[in-house]
Design brief:
Blueprint (H helix, E strand, L loop, with lengths): L11 H23 L1 H4 L3 E11 L13 E11 L4 E9 L9 E5 L4 E4 L4 E4 L5 H4 L2 H11 L3 E8 L2 E10 L2 E8 L5 E10 L3 E15 L2 E11 L2 E14 L30 E6 L2 E5 L4 E7 L2 E5 L5 H14 L5 E5 L11 H6 L3 E5 L3 H9 L8 H4 L7 E5 L3 E3 L4 E5 L9 E5 L4 E3 L12 H12 L6 E4 L2 E5 H7 L2
Parallel strand pairs: 17-18, 18-19, 19-20, 24-25
Antiparallel strand pairs: 1-2, 1-13, 2-3, 3-4, 4-5, 5-6, 7-8, 8-9, 9-10, 10-11, 11-12, 12-13, 14-15, 15-16, 16-17, 21-22, 22-23, 23-24, 25-26
């Protein structure tokens, strides 16, 4: 890297060409030490296990979190840059799941449907970034990397390359002494935290024939591990022994879109009682009711845009000025993603008292990448929090809140609208097709607190006669 010293004496155009030439040399060295130059037309076939931490939907907002355990069989074609992965996942009480076949190239993700490959949003590129072979291939084919200097990372100096993409700058850390890739690094937009610092770390390199493979890979978000992957058996296959890598020509790039369950589509309004309504889209349902000059919103999902659409629907249902209270019944990240909007709008927030620290951290988080409404009102917006852990009555008893307090529903609440004999079951009744532990905990809580609902609904359950819940307990 001695050439860098003469860069200030060169024109801007010459300096740009020089740093790109240096980056190309660094990437060429990485390909060489990994064995890309020796693999020829062959394909890398490997098996791996990964623990994908479910920090966004575990039973607490602090560790430990449960993980989705993934078993993978993958093939990577260095010539075409396509990776094909078969994945089965095990969740608590479910799995292994049916095998899903996914494909990625440098800019796109697909999943195998019944008749064709279906394109996925760019959020589904995560498995690709766990493989340094795909990362080096992508950076090489892009041809737009620049050398930006050196940084100390994990105790040693690393060469840092950078690229400008539609999602912002991404950086690649290469070990200065050996040439191996060590880390991919970038900022990523997030529906709850605004943005997060994402790192993909490659370690525990193993030799298979004439190639080197990262035996362990990790995804970290704001310094905390979210995915840990371990590679097991690896073999180098002749191309004809591998399955197809063929991808459609379009689209040229996967969309920068949220997963379907987080997309804030317009909510449909369904009446429950004279002044009680469900607001539901394909991802989540919420509940709203009016008592006097007060509006009570049960849960605020998906993010600011959904919260804004809910607010507009509420204004049409209940014209005029109202005091707004938002009841957060469950603390999964998607279930609270609109809370910043309501805090910025002056609403009171009610949740289990154990939620205070977490919700305060959500409000305090600085959104620097794309400032939201709360960020724009930072000087005046404050969290007005009411924490409860026993039965709590609102609007002179017209509404009551109840901790569910089953072994699987600690720190979660349910809400009861007395005039409508309606129970909002949070996210704790998800099906009436069969008995579940969650539904039984809801039923026991109603028995404990002397409630007599006639109908119920939840974030993933449409309006349902309560008699169906009772039948499931027999």
């Amino acid at each position: 890297m001695a050439m860098l010293g003469i860069a200030p004496q060169l024109s801007a155009q010459s300096r740009s060409a020089l740093v790109k030439e240096q980056a190309a040399s660094v990437l060429a060295r990485a390909r060489d030490v990994m064995g890309s130059t020796r693999i020829g037309e062959s394909v890398i076939h490997y098996r791996a296990g990964a623990a994908a931490e479910q920090n966004y939907q575990s039973d607490r907002t602090y560790p430990p979190f449960f993980s989705a355990m993934q078993i993978k069989e993958a093939w990577f074609d260095p010539r075409g840059g396509v990776e094909r992965i078969i994945t089965q996942a095990t969740f608590p009480g479910g799995g292994p799941s049916p095998a899903q076949v996914s494909f990625t190239d440098a800019k796109r993700a697909f999943i195998q449907g019944k008749e064709k490959l279906n394109v996925l949003p760019r959020t589904y590129m995560q498995p690709r970034y766990l493989n340094p072979w795909t990362v080096i291939a992508d950076w090489t084919s892009a041809g737009d990397a620049s050398f930006v200097g050196e940084e100390l990372y994990r105790d040693y100096p690393r060469i840092v390359l950078a690229r400008k993409t539609s999602d912002g700058e991404i950086r690649l850390f290469i070990d200065a002494k050996t040439g191996y890739p060590v880390k991919l690094d970038f900022q990523e937009k997030h529906y709850l935290w605004g943005q997060r610092h994402i790192e993909y770390l490659y370690s525990t390199w193993i030799r298979i024939g004439n190639v080197m493979i990262a035996g362990s890979s990790f995804r970290l978000a704001d310094g905390k591990t979210e995915i840990a992957q371990t590679v097991g058996d690896v073999e180098i296959l002749a191309r004809e022994a591998a399955p197809s890598f063929s991808l459609p020509g379009v689209p040229e790039q996967s969309l920068d879109a949220l997963p379907p369950f987080l997309q804030p589509l317009d909510p449909k309004v369904e009446q429950v009682g004279p002044k009680t309504y469900l607001l539901a889209n394909p991802g989540y349902a919420e509940m709203v009711t009016e008592v006097g000059n007060e509006i009570f919103v049960f849960d605020t999902t998906q993010g600011e845009e959904r919260a804004r659409k809910d607010s507009e629907a509420i204004a049409r249902l209940f014209p005029g000025r109202h005091n707004v209270t938002v009841v957060i019944t469950d603390l999964a990240w998607p279930h609270v993603a609109g809370v910043r909007y309501w805090v910025a709008s002056g609403a009171t927030i009610i949740a289990h008292k154990a939620a205070r620290e977490f919700l305060q951290s959500v409000v305090d988080r600085r959104w620097t990448l794309v400032p939201d409404l709360l960020e724009r009102r930072r000087k005046t917006a404050r969290l007005k929090f009411v924490g409860i852990d026993t039965t709590f009555r609102l609007a002179s008893g017209a509404i009551s809140l109840h901790p569910i307090d089953g072994i699987g529903s600690e720190v979660a609440l349910m809400g009861y609208v007395a005039a409508d004999h309606f129970l909002w079951a949070s996210d704790y009744i998800q099906t009436v097709a069969e008995p579940t532990a969650y539904a039984s905990e809801i039923w026991r809580a109603t028995q404990r607190d002397g409630l007599h609902p006639e109908h119920t609904a939840a974030e993933h359950l449409p309006l349902t006669p309560w008699s169906k819940i009772v039948e499931l307990q027999k």
